[in-house]
Write a structure and sequence with these properties.
Layout: H1 3-36, H2 38-43, H3 51-64, E1 74-76, E2 79-80, E3 83-85, H4 86-99, H5 102-116, E4 126-128, E5 131-132, H6 138-148, H7 155-171, E6 173-174, E7 177-178, E8 182-183, E9 188-189, E10 192-194, H8 200-209, H9 214-225, E11 238-240, E12 245-247, E13 252-253, H10 254-266, H11 272-284, E14 290-291, H12 304-317, H13 320-331, E15 345-346, E16 351-353, H14 354-368
Antiparallel strand pairs: 1-2, 1-16, 3-4, 4-5, 6-7, 8-9, 10-11, 11-12, 13-14, 15-16
């Protein structure tokens, strides 16, 4: 073989080697994309029912989901915050349930158990700076369990349900009373429960299936259904077990009050006063985030979440007229341009909260899915 033939042969082998290396790298990066960021991949692997839903999901995928597949708490000044909430995982789990995206639902559950479940057996409410915080939030675990208790279940679902129920029984009950959180740093439980935490629907399902939760359900039901409402349908903020009294903040958080009214309504409560208040505010042009107990706005600031939840409440009572108005108000918060296009938030400050983004996605699916 001549020197020229040898050189040609070497070049051929080099080309083949480089081609093989390129293919290997492509496979590796595809593997990383599908495993390390599988949540983002699965979020887009579905049929969207509106342009707004697709753009909201795309923004969430591109800007708010980290490499591990967790959803950041918020974007501030266009930058992702290094904090991830169990609350957000519960929201995207519920969204997956509404869309029927089983693969997405399964992936969310795997991530919850991989990153938020602690060695002690409870579920951390937040991962901050790469570390699970040593505290729980009752509302977050109830939210996840609520989705799991719906419809058909497989063996894996039953496993998840049992683990979460055991966590709740050990860390979120003080005797026969639900408490808002467990502090893993000192091993103490809270002495009160915020009223918007009392999701009667899931608490009753737990009680029906597991006798350990019957007395806590009845006690929580009594706290919610006997709460004093004012003339505008505003609830107290929490119930203190030691004093056996309801407690109030200086103002009413509208997200919390809508959620409390939703739970109250689903258990047969009369929420006409609150509905009248919401309708009156909408007729004036706005529902604000905070009000004093005399119905005066604390400050004239609105949010995606308030309109999303108000829309859900109006849909629940069958008032499509005001549901439509709130839905349009919610959609008005979606950014139409820029690097956060599709986000529900503040375009000027380039801020998007995960809670708002995910609640909007769920509301779009609930509203458009009815058509």
């Amino acid at each position: 073989m001549s020197i020229i033939d040898r050189i040609k042969n070497q070049k051929t082998w080099i080309r083949l080697f480089l081609l093989f290396l390129t293919i290997l790298l492509l496979v590796y990066f595809l593997y990383l994309y599908r495993t390390e960021n599988k949540l983002a991949y699965l979020l887009m692997k579905q049929d969207f029912i509106s342009k707004e839903e697709k753009e909201a999901a795309l923004m969430l995928k591109d800007k708010m989901i980290g490499r591990q597949g967790l959803i950041c708490q918020k974007i501030e000044q266009g930058k992702m915050m290094d904090a991830y909430l169990l609350e957000s995982m519960g929201q995207v789990l519920e969204y997956a349930d509404y869309t029927g995206n089983k693969e997405l639902k399964d992936e969310v559950l795997k991530l919850i158990f991989k990153y938020f479940k602690t060695r002690e057996g409870y579920f951390s409410w937040q991962i901050y700076d790469g570390k699970p915080q040593k505290a729980t939030a009752l509302i977050d675990e109830l939210h996840i369990l609520k989705v799991l208790l719906r419809g058909e279940r497989n063996k894996e679902d039953e496993y998840y349900i049992d683990v979460i129920k055991n966590s709740l029984y050990k860390f979120s009950l003080q005797g026969d009373r639900w408490v808002s959180f467990y502090d893993g740093r000192c091993g103490k439980k809270a002495g009160e429960i915020p009223l918007f935490y009392i999701d009667i629907e899931v608490m009753k399902k737990m009680a029906d299936e597991d006798n350990r939760f019957f007395k806590p359900f009845k006690q929580a039901e009594e706290v919610l259904m006997h709460a004093p409402l004012n003339e505008y349908g505003f609830f107290p903020q929490a119930y203190d077990y030691e004093s056996e009294e309801y407690s109030y903040n200086s103002s009413v958080n509208m997200v919390e009050n809508i959620l409390t009214n939703m739970h109250y309504f689903k258990n047969g409560g009369d929420i006409r006063q609150f509905i009248c208040f919401l309708q009156r505010e909408i007729d004036k042009g706005h529902i604000y985030n905070y009000y004093y107990y005399n119905s005066t706005p604390l400050e004239k600031v609105e949010s995606t979440a308030v309109y999303a939840l108000a829309c859900q409440l109006f849909m629940a009572i069958g008032d499509e007229v005001y549901a439509d108005i709130c839905y349009k108000k919610m959609l008005a918060f979606q950014m139409k341009e820029g690097d956060l296009k599709g986000g529900f938030g503040d375009l000027f400050n380039r801020t998007v909260y995960a809670y708002d983004q995910l609640e909007a996605l769920k509301t779009i699916r609930m509203k458009e899915g009815k058509k």
